[in-house]
Amino acid sequence: MPFDHIPPLLRTSSSKIVLLVLDGLGGLPIETGGPTELEAAKTPIMDRLASEGALGQATPIRPGITPGSGPAHLALFGYDPLEYEIGRGVLESVGVGLHVGSGDVAARGNFCTLDGAGNISDRRAGRIPTEEAIPVVEQLKSISLPGVSTEVRHVKEYRFAVVMRGENLNPDIDDTDPQRTGVPPLPATPRSPSAEYTADLFNQWIAKARQKLVDNQNANGMTLRGFATDPNLPTFQDSYGLNAAAISVYPMYKGVASLVGMQVIDFAGEAPEDEFAALAGAWQEHDFFFIHIKKTDSKGEDGDFEGKAHIIEGVDQALPNLLDLNPDVLIITGDHSTPASMRTHSWHPVPFLLWAPGSVRPDNQSSFGERSCARGGLGNISSLDTLPLALAHAGRLEKFGA
After folding, report:
1. Cα–Cα distance between 333 and 147 in angstroms, integer?
2. Closest to 346 in 3D by CA, of 358, 336, 333
3. In sequence order, which residues have a C-beta less than 8 Å from that of residue 80 and are 6 or more positions away?
4. Domain of residue 223, CATH code
């Protein structure tokens, strides 16, 4: 169990918990003394919740460690990512409905753009839209290899997932994405002798894939990341006694929610208003809701400071739709920081807002931002503390000991 001491303390309650995750929420000023993206955004609703609740900073993994999205979300769900290590391939694959069984190996794929010398000029193929990427994925579905089967499915925009099934497969393989431009994609390299066979199969698959992609304008290359197999995680219900639902636009986050036993809610649209409408529709059937907002992270990775602030403002404008449901506990935070000035994930702690009328101990902060969170009453916490705090404020934990 993620927290062995939690199950004996669980008690029945009709309370509702909402965990609202703005991906890559944490940021940095772009000029000395200036605001971060969150501080620059006009967020009157979040500021009111901050004045009524308590603020803090959350560290996703450990101080100084820059997390990927998968490990960072696991931490928010109470699963120590240093103990429960999950490759992104499984998250992406499960998120789009691909089965990943024990012994299968899944990988997340990125289409990329290669120059005439075979070097990567754009790691995301110009962020090609979904309608352009789907036919490219179809080109990869016909690839066959001796002794194994492969299944490929489009994820979103430039992303796809591939699952290899067969005997004696091992996911202990390094990513083929060098994480920079001006160099060629890396080969699939085994980290242990037992993975040599699997790495060789994936290199064969990559070679055939590149032959099929060569004539495409943007997506004429690809990289693979997060080789992994079924992690067999403890379920959310067993760990926390919660009937949990997940509301997300991007498949990877549906995947990590599915792996811990949350029910993924299908809905139309991509705006915060659409996600909150889906929340309202599922309100009576569940007692814990994970809502994921992706574009804060995307704007940060694009270096778009104003765009990231604008996305945060859009969430704030839609928040009354969520608050009309009267949740007992609302936590607003991020999985990690993605400062626009850095254009990538970072190790900085993440702003954390806990709102729970009737049980929260308010601090003297009146706005939601990095500086106010650094002064907040919750102090510096681990993302692993999120679920215990939520359960306590929802009245779902008994006293420990006599």
Report:
1. 46
2. 336
3. 2, 74, 384
4. 3.30.70
